[in-house]
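Hey,

Quick one before I head out. I ran the complex with FE2/S2 (inorganic) cluster overnight. Inputs first:
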Amino acid sequence: MPFALGIGTGSIPPAAPAATALDTPVFVSLGFPRPGARASPTGDTPSSLLGERCPGQLARLRSPIGITYAPMAFALSAELERQLEQIIVRYPNKAAACLPALHMCQRANGGYVSDEVIAFVAERLELGPAHVKGVVTFYSLLNTRPPGRHQVWVCRTLSCCLRGGENLLAHCEKRLGIRAGQTTPDGRVTLRTAECLASCGSGPVIQVDEQYYEHLTTDEVDRILDRLLFEG
Ligand code: FES
Protein backbone atom coordinates (compact mmCIF):
# COMPACT_ATOMS: atom_id res chain seq x y z
CA MET A 1 0.00 0.00 0.00
CA PRO A 2 1.58 3.35 -1.00
CA PHE A 3 2.69 5.56 1.86
CA ALA A 4 2.21 9.30 1.39
CA LEU A 5 3.29 11.95 3.87
CA GLY A 6 1.88 14.74 1.82
CA ILE A 7 5.22 16.66 1.76
CA GLY A 8 5.33 19.02 -1.17
CA THR A 9 1.73 18.43 -2.05
CA GLY A 10 0.36 21.17 0.12
CA SER A 11 -1.76 18.74 2.11
CA ILE A 12 -1.72 18.72 5.89
CA PRO A 13 -0.34 15.59 7.57
CA PRO A 14 -2.98 13.77 9.55
CA ALA A 15 -3.08 14.79 13.17
CA ALA A 16 -2.28 12.23 15.85
CA PRO A 17 -5.48 10.65 17.15
CA ALA A 18 -6.79 12.32 20.24
CA ALA A 19 -6.31 10.31 23.43
CA THR A 20 -9.43 8.59 24.60
CA ALA A 21 -10.47 8.47 28.22
CA LEU A 22 -9.07 4.96 28.50
CA ASP A 23 -5.72 5.92 26.93
CA THR A 24 -5.19 8.69 29.41
CA PRO A 25 -3.65 7.71 32.74
CA VAL A 26 -6.04 8.68 35.50
CA PHE A 27 -4.59 9.74 38.81
CA VAL A 28 -6.80 10.07 41.83
CA SER A 29 -6.15 10.73 45.48
CA LEU A 30 -7.11 7.88 47.76
CA GLY A 31 -6.50 9.69 51.02
CA PHE A 32 -4.05 7.04 52.25
CA PRO A 33 -0.44 6.35 51.29
CA ARG A 34 0.33 3.38 49.11
CA PRO A 35 1.97 0.37 50.79
CA GLY A 36 5.74 0.71 50.59
CA ALA A 37 5.65 4.47 50.02
CA ARG A 38 8.24 6.53 51.87
CA ALA A 39 7.08 9.36 54.06
CA SER A 40 8.27 12.78 52.94
CA PRO A 41 10.70 14.69 55.20
CA THR A 42 7.93 17.19 55.90
CA GLY A 43 5.52 14.50 56.98
CA ASP A 44 3.19 15.33 54.10
CA THR A 45 2.36 12.64 51.60
CA PRO A 46 3.44 13.84 48.16
CA SER A 47 0.62 13.75 45.69
CA SER A 48 2.73 11.47 43.48
CA LEU A 49 2.54 8.79 46.19
CA LEU A 50 -1.22 9.01 46.29
CA GLY A 51 -1.52 8.59 42.55
CA GLU A 52 -3.38 5.61 41.22
CA ARG A 53 -3.40 4.47 37.64
CA CYS A 54 -6.55 2.73 36.67
CA PRO A 55 -7.63 0.30 35.65
CA GLY A 56 -5.68 -2.75 36.56
CA GLN A 57 -2.06 -1.74 37.00
CA LEU A 58 -1.84 -1.36 40.74
CA ALA A 59 0.86 -3.90 41.53
CA ARG A 60 3.09 -2.83 38.65
CA LEU A 61 2.85 0.92 38.98
CA ARG A 62 6.05 2.83 39.52
CA SER A 63 5.96 6.40 40.78
CA PRO A 64 7.67 9.26 38.94
CA ILE A 65 10.35 9.34 41.65
CA GLY A 66 11.24 5.68 41.29
CA ILE A 67 9.43 3.98 44.15
CA THR A 68 8.11 0.53 43.27
CA TYR A 69 4.87 -0.15 45.01
CA ALA A 70 4.37 -3.34 46.99
CA PRO A 71 2.07 -5.99 45.49
CA MET A 72 -1.42 -6.25 46.88
CA ALA A 73 -1.44 -8.08 50.19
CA PHE A 74 -5.03 -9.32 49.95
CA ALA A 75 -5.94 -12.45 48.01
CA LEU A 76 -8.90 -14.81 47.88
CA SER A 77 -8.71 -18.58 48.17
CA ALA A 78 -9.13 -20.56 44.95
CA GLU A 79 -12.71 -21.41 45.92
CA LEU A 80 -13.60 -17.77 46.64
CA GLU A 81 -11.93 -16.71 43.39
CA ARG A 82 -14.26 -19.11 41.59
CA GLN A 83 -17.26 -17.66 43.43
CA LEU A 84 -16.16 -14.13 42.57
CA GLU A 85 -16.04 -15.03 38.88
CA GLN A 86 -19.57 -16.44 39.16
CA ILE A 87 -20.76 -13.19 40.76
CA ILE A 88 -19.15 -11.02 38.09
CA VAL A 89 -20.74 -12.85 35.15
CA ARG A 90 -24.22 -12.33 36.61
CA TYR A 91 -24.03 -8.61 35.90
CA PRO A 92 -24.04 -6.66 32.63
CA ASN A 93 -20.64 -5.16 33.46
CA LYS A 94 -17.94 -5.62 36.08
CA ALA A 95 -18.67 -2.36 37.88
CA ALA A 96 -22.18 -3.57 38.72
CA ALA A 97 -20.65 -6.40 40.77
CA CYS A 98 -18.94 -3.96 43.13
CA LEU A 99 -21.22 -4.41 46.15
CA PRO A 100 -21.40 -8.24 46.18
CA ALA A 101 -17.66 -8.40 45.50
CA LEU A 102 -16.98 -6.10 48.45
CA HIS A 103 -19.24 -8.10 50.75
CA MET A 104 -17.46 -11.31 49.80
CA CYS A 105 -14.04 -9.77 50.32
CA GLN A 106 -15.12 -8.20 53.61
CA ARG A 107 -16.12 -11.63 54.93
CA ALA A 108 -12.83 -13.09 53.74
CA ASN A 109 -10.90 -10.27 55.41
CA GLY A 110 -12.20 -10.64 58.96
CA GLY A 111 -15.24 -8.39 58.58
CA TYR A 112 -13.80 -5.20 57.18
CA VAL A 113 -12.58 -3.65 53.94
CA SER A 114 -8.94 -2.66 54.23
CA ASP A 115 -6.98 -0.54 51.75
CA GLU A 116 -5.60 -3.79 50.31
CA VAL A 117 -9.11 -5.10 49.74
CA ILE A 118 -10.04 -1.85 47.99
CA ALA A 119 -7.02 -2.24 45.68
CA PHE A 120 -7.90 -5.88 45.00
CA VAL A 121 -11.54 -5.16 44.13
CA ALA A 122 -10.58 -2.15 42.02
CA GLU A 123 -8.21 -4.24 39.96
CA ARG A 124 -10.63 -7.14 39.50
CA LEU A 125 -13.51 -4.92 38.48
CA GLU A 126 -11.38 -2.51 36.46
CA LEU A 127 -12.47 0.45 38.55
CA GLY A 128 -10.56 3.31 40.09
CA PRO A 129 -9.69 2.67 43.74
CA ALA A 130 -11.29 6.02 44.62
CA HIS A 131 -14.55 4.75 43.11
CA VAL A 132 -14.38 1.58 45.25
CA LYS A 133 -13.48 3.56 48.34
CA GLY A 134 -16.46 5.84 47.71
CA VAL A 135 -18.75 2.79 47.69
CA VAL A 136 -17.18 1.41 50.87
CA THR A 137 -17.55 4.66 52.80
CA PHE A 138 -21.13 5.21 51.58
CA TYR A 139 -22.67 1.93 52.72
CA SER A 140 -22.86 1.35 56.45
CA LEU A 141 -22.75 -2.44 56.11
CA LEU A 142 -19.21 -2.16 54.78
CA ASN A 143 -16.72 -1.64 57.59
CA THR A 144 -13.52 0.33 57.19
CA ARG A 145 -12.15 -0.95 60.51
CA PRO A 146 -12.23 -4.37 62.15
CA PRO A 147 -15.56 -4.72 63.97
CA GLY A 148 -16.21 -6.55 67.21
CA ARG A 149 -17.16 -10.21 67.20
CA HIS A 150 -20.83 -9.14 67.30
CA GLN A 151 -22.41 -6.05 65.80
CA VAL A 152 -25.46 -4.54 67.48
CA TRP A 153 -27.47 -2.11 65.36
CA VAL A 154 -30.06 0.04 67.14
CA CYS A 155 -32.68 1.61 64.89
CA ARG A 156 -32.84 5.34 65.45
CA THR A 157 -35.51 6.28 62.95
CA LEU A 158 -38.90 7.79 63.76
CA SER A 159 -41.16 4.79 64.30
CA CYS A 160 -38.71 3.13 66.64
CA CYS A 161 -37.93 6.40 68.42
CA LEU A 162 -41.63 6.91 69.14
CA ARG A 163 -41.59 3.48 70.78
CA GLY A 164 -38.51 4.13 72.95
CA GLY A 165 -35.64 3.52 70.52
CA GLU A 166 -33.59 6.44 71.84
CA ASN A 167 -33.86 5.15 75.40
CA LEU A 168 -32.82 1.73 74.16
CA LEU A 169 -29.71 3.19 72.56
CA ALA A 170 -28.81 5.09 75.73
CA HIS A 171 -29.37 1.88 77.71
CA CYS A 172 -27.05 -0.10 75.38
CA GLU A 173 -24.35 2.57 75.66
CA LYS A 174 -24.54 2.50 79.45
CA ARG A 175 -24.64 -1.29 79.65
CA LEU A 176 -21.69 -1.75 77.28
CA GLY A 177 -19.71 1.27 78.55
CA ILE A 178 -19.19 2.59 75.02
CA ARG A 179 -20.81 5.09 72.66
CA ALA A 180 -22.48 4.24 69.38
CA GLY A 181 -19.77 3.58 66.79
CA GLN A 182 -17.36 2.07 69.34
CA THR A 183 -16.30 -1.47 70.23
CA THR A 184 -16.03 -2.86 73.75
CA PRO A 185 -12.40 -3.14 74.95
CA ASP A 186 -12.56 -6.96 74.83
CA GLY A 187 -13.53 -6.77 71.14
CA ARG A 188 -16.81 -8.62 71.65
CA VAL A 189 -19.43 -6.04 70.71
CA THR A 190 -19.56 -3.09 68.32
CA LEU A 191 -22.54 -0.80 68.95
CA ARG A 192 -23.95 1.02 65.96
CA THR A 193 -27.05 2.93 64.95
CA ALA A 194 -29.13 2.16 61.89
CA GLU A 195 -31.55 4.14 59.78
CA CYS A 196 -34.85 2.23 59.63
CA LEU A 197 -34.28 -1.49 59.80
CA ALA A 198 -37.52 -1.94 57.82
CA SER A 199 -39.51 -3.42 60.66
CA CYS A 200 -41.29 -0.21 61.68
CA GLY A 201 -44.46 -1.90 62.92
CA SER A 202 -42.58 -3.88 65.56
CA GLY A 203 -40.32 -1.28 67.13
CA PRO A 204 -38.18 -0.68 68.93
CA VAL A 205 -35.94 -2.94 66.90
CA ILE A 206 -32.30 -3.93 67.10
CA GLN A 207 -30.31 -6.14 64.79
CA VAL A 208 -27.61 -8.37 66.24
CA ASP A 209 -25.36 -9.67 63.48
CA GLU A 210 -27.90 -11.23 61.07
CA GLN A 211 -30.81 -11.49 63.50
CA TYR A 212 -33.65 -9.08 64.33
CA TYR A 213 -35.10 -8.53 67.81
CA GLU A 214 -38.43 -6.68 67.94
CA HIS A 215 -40.85 -5.12 70.48
CA LEU A 216 -37.89 -4.79 72.81
CA THR A 217 -37.75 -3.72 76.44
CA THR A 218 -34.60 -2.84 78.36
CA ASP A 219 -34.81 -6.16 80.24
CA GLU A 220 -34.81 -8.08 76.97
CA VAL A 221 -31.90 -5.98 75.69
CA ASP A 222 -29.96 -6.81 78.86
CA ARG A 223 -30.47 -10.52 78.25
CA ILE A 224 -29.29 -10.18 74.66
CA LEU A 225 -26.21 -8.16 75.61
CA ASP A 226 -25.32 -10.53 78.45
CA ARG A 227 -25.34 -13.39 76.01
CA LEU A 228 -23.04 -11.49 73.63
CA LEU A 229 -20.68 -10.36 76.36
CA PHE A 230 -20.39 -13.57 78.34
CA GLU A 231 -21.30 -16.43 76.01
CA GLY A 232 -20.83 -15.43 72.40
S1 FES B 1 -38.14 3.00 62.15
FE1 FES B 1 -37.17 1.35 63.15
S2 FES B 1 -37.50 -0.28 61.79
FE2 FES B 1 -38.32 1.41 60.73
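Helices lie at 47-50, 78-88, 98-108, 115-125, 129-138, 158-162, 165-176, 218-230.

Talk tomorrow,
K.
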